[in-house]
Description:
Blueprint: E1 6-9, E2 16-25, H1 27-40, E3 47-58, H2 60-75, E4 79-83, H3 88-96, E5 104-106, H4 109-113
Amino acid sequence: MTDHTHGAAAAGPAGVGVVRARGELDWEDAQDFVQRLTDALDRPPRLLVVDFAEVTFADSSVLHGLLDAHRRMAEAGGRLVLAGPLREPVRRLLDLASATGYLHIAADADAALRPPRSPRE
C-alpha cells in the first residue's frame, strides 16, 4: 500500500517553509499536493523546501505544480528548492521536461537549507 499523505510544516529556521510528500503522486494525489504548495505560498517564505525524498513517482500535473510554485516564489523574491534524493521515476520526469535546469535541486533537505554557492544551485 502506498502512503499518499502529504504534510506542510513551518518547522525550521524563520522564513523557511517545508512541504513534504511521499508515495506515488499521480493525477489524483497531485491535487492535494498542489493545494499544499498553494497554501505554503499564501504568505511566501523566503525559502520553500519541497522534500521529495520519499516520492516514488510523480506525473506531469505534479511537475506543473512545482514549476508554478517555483515561478511564484521567484516573483515574490524567494526561492523554491526541491530536496531529494530523487528516485529514478521522478528524476526521469524532470529530465524529460528539461526541468532540472530550471528548478533548484538539492541532494537532501539539509542541503536545501544551505545558501546556494552559485546562481543555479
